[in-house]
Amino acid sequence: MQSRLKIHFQNRIMQTHLKLDLPTSQDNSNKFNANAQQAWSAIGHLVELFEVVFSTVSQLAFVVDLAKDHKGGIRLAFLCLVSPIYVLFSKRELWSRVFGIYASNKHYLRAKAFFNIATNAEYKQEVMVNGAEEYITEEFGKAEDALGNVSDDYAFRLFSRTRTPVPVILADFFRDLPLITYAIDCILHPEYFSVASLAMLQQTSESLRWTFYRLKSQKATMAEDLSYIKALYEGVSIPNTIESGDLSYPLDESAEKQVQRGMSIELRDVTFAYPGADSRNVLENISTSIPASSLVVIVGANGSGKSSLVKLLTNLHRPRSGDILIDSHPISAYSTTDLRRATALLTQDHSVFPLNIAENIGLGDPANATDRTRVEEAAKMGGASGFIAKLARKWDEVLFPITTSYASQYPMRPGDLRDVMLRVEKQSDISGGEKQRLVASRTFMRIMSGNIKLLVVDEPTSAMDPQGEFELFERLRGMREGKTTVFVTHRFGHLTKHADLILCMKEGKLVESGTHVELMARNGEYFSLYNIQAQAFTETPLEKNPS
Ligand SMILES: Nc1ncnc2c1ncn2[C@@H]1O[C@H](COP(=O)(O)OP(=O)(O)OP(=O)(O)O)[C@@H](O)[C@H]1O
Fold it and tell me: CA–CA separation, 305 vs 77, rounded Å?
């Protein structure tokens, strides 16, 4: 039952995540973080709560029953309840409250940071190449010294620690009180003494204390448990920032015309900021028109807003103000599913899924993901066939498998178990350039779907060799028929000469637009950027055009 319920919840959680668009999922105020284990635990806790309530009632009934047959029984029953009630109200427990834990001590944070840098494999290379070992050790020591006696004990324990021993002494006293009273009773009235009732009394008192304690903890977690389940069911109704319209894309034109035309895009006074209440504008007052089937190159320095502009063109984000028109209609009027189906985006973020190579490429066109001929063709176009052929399991190689393995002991001594552990779920890494080729192949798979009207390529070749980069761009350019193609690149020399339109960005603004010849004649930002590239190959910088 546990597995079934967990799968049910997992399915729900997955659907909620998949439904969210990019801005909604990046908006911290919308963080949907329900997990199936929590939901299952919540159900378990509720069942336990019923059990504890039942247990409390039956134990209380037993105490009353015992008290009835004993001289001074009512007094004894009352004393039995003192200890559990004291525990119920006196113990400071963090888990019984709504809480947030964080460390604010700057020396503590610094010591933790250096410890992390020294022990985390992720930083190993950077630490080594920078020769930072000594610095890390020294700074860690300084932070530790400055920290002095500040305890970094488990937060739960820190919270329940008491300054005086009085509460502990009182708790012990109340626990023993019924027995002490009973013992005095027995001395004064030996005729009432019974070993059986003494044992029962002690047993009942002990159980009651424990039951009350459980009751307290169950009550405390119940609100949290119920909120997990509520969050799980409310997740599906988190509204997306990018709402879908009804207009289908491509518009209902003759089939022949659709095949030949790419997407036309117009931006009117567009301003954009990333999600978050106080985020600043990263694009301001952008107005431009990208004709259907044109080849556009976006250039500009780091941080000038090229990728942000791409995110607007590809409908991953919406502007803060201004309008975007696709084929003369507002972008918001179209079905988001249709627009996504017609768009291929190859970016610098190369995500390799924890799936085999063939599926990693096939996912560019999910409808044909298992068509091996297409996948192989796409890999060839993306320049990935060469390295795939060298992998031990070729198309079936899973580069970054999901890790589930753990062993009882680590490090283990050489032997059978250690060998097995080293073999299972071994990550076989490939180079950065090879990863980019793999992701590029996925884009070719997507282009081959035949639905693409807008192809956007955002600096996907940072790790590729110049030959690989040139060939990739040429192949992508070769696929541009019937598509509007947008390239973002710092090494634009060989592309901008083919471009119908160059958009030159600077500090979030579109500072120049036109063809290569027009922009060179302006002696402006584009001229400077082009000149910097040209200088890498010529002795002297290009002369400015006479203005
Ligand atoms: N997800 C994000 N959230 C908040 N700000 C962001 C985000 N991504 C980028 N920015 C900011 O937006 C601005 C423009 O960034 P963008 O990535 O569009 O520039 P770019 O021209 O593509 O840069 P590069 O050439 O380095 O890729 C930068 O100041 C950047 O810090």
Answer: 75
State if residue 283 touches ligand 1 by the CB under 6 angstroms criterion: no
The model's pTM: 0.71
Ligand 1 neighbourhood includes 300 CB (under 6 angstroms)? yes
- What is the number of helices (H) and of strands (E) in the chain? 22, 10
Average pLDDT in the chain = 81
What's the DSSP call for residue 247?
A: B
Q: Are 211 and 55 in contact (CB under 8 A)?
A: yes
Q: Is the CB of 460 under 6 A from ligand 1?
A: no
Q: Whose CA is nearest to atom 26 of ligand 1?
A: 302
Q: What angle do CA 528, 532, 538 make, to 5 degrees?
A: 125
Please indicate whether residue 209, judged by its CB atom, sits closer than 6 Å to ligand 1.
no
- Torsion sign, CA atoms 396, 400, 402, 403: positive
- Are residues 172 and 48 in contact, defined by beta-carbon separation less than 8 angstroms? no
Min mean pLDDT across 11-25, 250-264, 505-519 is at 250-264
Cα(532) to centroid(ligand 1), Å:
22
DSSP H helices, 120-154, are: 121-129, 133-147
The alpha carbon of 357 and the centre of ligand 1 are apart by a number of angstroms equal to 30
Pairing relationship of beta strands 343-346 and 329-330 according to DSSP bridges? unpaired
